[in-house]
Amino acid sequence: MSLKFENYNPAEDKLFQIMDNMGVIINPSEMPDISDALAVKAYKDMLFSRIADAMAVSFQRQGRMYTYPSNYGQEAIAVAAGMAMREEDWMVPAFRELAAWLAKGATLKEIFLYYMGNEEGSAFKNAKHLLPFSVPISSQFPHAVGIGYAINQHKKDEVVFAFVGDGGTSEGDFSEALNFAAVWKVPVVFIVQNNQYAISVPIRKQTKSKNIAVKAMAFGMPGIKVDGNDIFAMYAALKHAADYARTKNGPVLIEGFTYRRGAHTTSDDPTKYRTKEEEQEWDAKDPLKRLKFYLDSKGLWTEDEEKLTEQYKQEVERQFEEAEKTPPHTLDDVFKYTHYEMPDELRRQKVEYEKFLQWKEGRK
Amino acid sequence: MEGGTKMSVMTMVQAINNAMDIKLAEDSNVVIYGEDVGYEGGVFRVTEGLQQKYGENRVFDSPLAESAIVGTAVGMAIAGLRPIVELQFDGFTYPAFNQIVSHAARMHNRTRGKFKTPMVIRFPYGGGINALEHHSESPEATYGHIPGLKVVIPSTPHDAKGLLISAIESDDTIIFMEPKRIYRAIKQEVSTEKFSIPIGKAKVVTPGTDITVVAYGAMIREVQKAMVMAKEAGISVELIDLRTIYPIDRETIAQSIQKTGRVLTVAESPTSFGVGAEIMAIANEEAFLYLEAPPRRVNGFDTIIPLAKGEHFYMQTPEKIFYEIERTVRF
């Protein structure tokens, strides 16, 4: 692998690609070191993520879950990130990186719990160094930089992977974080999932920059625009950026140029602001199709996809049912974590409420 | 533990500096940053000399961006550091409001206790120094109203040191507001050794029998001046220094009101929805049948704090405080 950021000057709007839409390797010199088995696993992970995502949307439609943001079409970025992250690395997510959460050790059950309104879901109990979802846009970026500062201070060999969408690049926190990161030379890989829309606002109304990657230049860090539906290119870029950051060169900005094929969330209807032609154009660039073409051409795919799909569906169903069976918050939970040391005032408020509950019980 | 044997006369600025010096020496995870705090030692020189002593990795100047200053501190705290950040003035905390409210205050809750954010957000607050716009505000009730934050305000050099040491050692996020008007106006013997004052406990500064006056920060000194007038008028005032805005010390306030039957609150902030209203709620809930007069508030108006030439209308003076004390006692 010989990727050099300087060969992909974002000011010239260069796009880093390895595999074309038909799964043909068009840039063999920059093909990352991926074993056949890992390439197959990458496809399986994307497939699992796509199935889980589609089922999540359907659970929401059945009224069994609250608002959910679809990951449909963006699986390659998340799976590639999962492949590039080590266990000790940190992940600072936005909210559309389902496969990366799973790779980091979160469970589908936890993710479902979160979207069912159960806070247990965002604790990611057995995942190491995984932050919860950040709903205020871009506000997680400064956290990534602070973690990076702590990594340097503790002389640790860790990297932070931080995610945001294209809309988030307009927020002040995006610029503030990139600036701090470059000045402090922290090991952070900033990943912008440019899926072309912030809800209904298209990228051309979001920024006058040629692309997102070019913004890195103003802050004094490398930036690269990558075909976000090309898992080999995404993995190569993320791996290279992580190595660059891990060897204390400072932060990198990666623009994953992709497309959200679903709605922004289950409350949104993209047919109002997108054309059929555009959707068809991106269908041809679909990350799963492309990797499948590649695997088929190499004779690497030997599984029965239908059987596998069925198996994955059952697994998603199983975890969803577990989430549904999880009891809701207790009153204790509401009070327990607001402060590390609970103030007496909160104890008093809880006792008052318990008295009310007793009174209510007595009326029955 | 309060007190100590080795004493030195300190201003509040020196006492705060001394607290940070002690914690920097003791805990290598403590870091201090913000605009101007490193090389220059802060615009009020509160961090003076600390960078020279502890190096640029532990005490440093950050780029100018309040949201990122607080936001990066959230990340540092999650990853094991204990950041103390300085925001230069009260009115400049608002650009950081999203990070304070959306993240610093709730990361512990959101992760069900998995992550904590032990950090101190320090900033000078309050009026009376003929400052520019956005330099004289008192947003303690704003931050006190945010679940997940604790808000501390010292009124003396001794308290500033002891409370700040507690704040740095706390595993919660602490908003530490420094009354800039008395940064150098009060000198006091303070122990040079390490000591701490618990967060959440008010102090009865002066016991009295006729009326309870609850105040904090720079207002304590103004109330004490008013108390001289009250004494001449034969009124015995019990003065309570809140020390912590949230969690508020309900017990100390309630006991005092039950004893005196009257309460007056004094603060620099706008009147409505302020700390005074909270104390009145405590008076109602805990001491209603003891009350001999309606609780009253001495506050600024619900206006933008005027610039220097008009500031005297807004400020709480000893005369204004005495006027309200007398009105309440003679009700």
Automatic annotation (TrEMBL), chain B:
InterPro entries: THDP-binding (IPR029061), Transketo_C/PFOR_II (IPR009014), Transketolase-like_Pyr-bd (IPR005475), Transketolase_C (IPR033248). It is an enzyme of class 1 (oxidoreductase). Keywords: Oxidoreductase, Pyruvate. One of its GO terms (biological process) is response to nutrient. Pfam families: Transket_pyr (PF02779), Transketolase_C (PF02780). Its cofactor is thiamine diphosphate. SUPFAM superfamilies: Thiamin diphosphate-binding fold (THDP-binding) (SSF52518), TK C-terminal domain-like (SSF52922). Its EC number is 1.2.4.4. Residues 10-185 form the Transketolase-like pyrimidine-binding domain. One of its GO terms (molecular function) is branched-chain 2-oxo acid dehydrogenase activity. This is 3-methyl-2-oxobutanoate dehydrogenase (2-methylpropanoyl-transferring). It comes from Acetobacteroides hydrogenigenes. The lineage of its organism: Bacteria, Pseudomonadati, Bacteroidota, Bacteroidia, Bacteroidales.
